[in-house]
Amino acid sequence: MNITKNTEGKTLNIALEGRLDTTTAPQLEAEFNQSIADNTELILDFANLEYLSSAGLRVLLAVQKTMNKQGKMIIRNVNEVISEVFEVTGFSDILTIE
Amino acid sequence: MKELTLDATIENVAAVTAFVDEQLEQLDCPMKTQLQVDVAIDELFGNIAHYAYNPEVGAATVRVEVTENPLAVVITFIDNGVPYDPLAKADPDITLSAEEREIGGLGIYMVKKSMDDVSYEYREGKNILRIKKNI
């Protein structure tokens, strides 16, 4: 999985490419732990993310909780497979998906 | 039938996925179906890697079979680790808020929802978990 990030003021944009799974989720978790402290807005771009498993959901839940305290988080460009995962698990009610 | 036996480690999830995808591609499996199967592999082989032999490392076998009428792929995960029936776990409450959420059990729940059949048996010292997905 590739992680691309850029910051505009207090907004952190992170684009993911590849697969967010058991193998790669720790990489994203480390990135969040390192980068989100000073941001009030986190925008995740899933345009090039193929799928995510429960390991990815765990990381998204943790960062959503953090962003609930310090601002907001938005997920964009979710594909059909990922959208179904969010629906089935009830994450579509927890996350803000545009 | 094709079979792959390798160490049950997180590093080997990618090898299992590639092995199964190769079979699926020969069946002209739709991309969406393949990605759902790949997620199931991550959950199930990932579970074996994390728990079956912990803290040791042991082997697991992944078997891919194709059935016809309707065309389906049957994938069987076999390990000799501690007996564990993931299907015995209650489904997670998916209506809770972010603060109340617990993540345990979500993986197997996703597998149950996305596959056409999931079954488990413990036989002759082996965990045998089987998933079926119509193509």
Explain this structure.
With 98 residues, chain A is an alpha/beta fold. Chain A has one domain: STAS domain (Transcription Regulator spoIIAA, 2-Layer Sandwich), CATH 3.30.750. Chain A is 39% helix and 35% strand. A four-stranded mixed β-sheet of chain A has the order 1-2-3-4. In chain A, a hairpin with a 2-residue loop joins strand 1 (2-8) and strand 2. In chain A, helix 1 (25-35) runs parallel beside helix 2 (54-70). Chain A starts with a strand and ends in a 9-residue tail after the last helix. In chain A, 41% of the residues are buried. The mean pLDDT of chain A is 96. Chain B has 135 residues and is an alpha+beta fold. Chain B has one domain (2-134): Histidine kinase-like ATPase, C-terminal domain (Heat Shock Protein 90), CATH 3.30.565.10. Chain B is 33% helix and 29% strand. Chain B contains three helices and five strands, in the order βααββαββ. Chain B has helices spanning 13-26, 31-52, 106-114; strands at 2-7, 59-67, 72-79, 117-123, 126-134. Chain B has a five-stranded antiparallel β-sheet, with helices on one face. In chain B, helix 1 (13-26) packs antiparallel against helix 2 (31-52) and helix 2 (31-52) runs antiparallel to helix 3 (106-114). The interface between A and B is medium-sized, with 25 and 28 residues.
